[in-house]
Task: structure prediction
Amino acid sequence: MKRVSLVGVLVSTLLLAAAYGLAFAPEIAPRLAPVLLALGTAGILAWTLVLAAQRNGRLGVLWVPVVFIVLVVGGGLVALILLPPVDPADPTLIVGLPPRAALLMYGVGLLPTLVVPVAYALTFDRLTLSSADLERVRAAGRARRAPDPGDAGDAGEVEGLASERDETPPTDVPGPRDGPGGRG
Result:
């Protein structure tokens, strides 16, 4: 699943890059660039969430917020493209904003920021590190810090540097509390 997620991130990034690149093709940019931006933005959000939320190669119940993100963000951005412009003679307002701005602020912006943290909070105990996983991570950290007994070639130099660093400073060097003349 990690490889699929990385490919999804790559494809989404390429969609975004293509949308920005269409700025140099003004004859097709107005039609195609917004669609590529909508798909690329929804894709990068969803695939990054999948990449971060998967555990042991599985997504579990977090597929629901991922699908929600794709539908709300992707669908909302495509809807922004399809909505007709506001008529200045008859400005329709939704919660104080024109329809496009309201959809962008409340639908694409606010709604996912409310749903994703709630989904994370509801699944936190089941999908975060267990005690066994945490101990495995700690053991790997201890093993990484431990000196390798089979590698004696550079170990003396490294240990020598570490022991020099760990020594207390000489007493004849003025410290931060000493005046300009040294001690006293």
Observations:
- Confidence is low (pLDDT under 50) at residues 155-166.
- DSSP finds six helices and no strands in the chain.
- The helical segments are 2-21, 29-53, 63-82, 99-127, 131-145, 155-166.
- The CA atoms of residues 1 and 57 lie 5 Å apart.
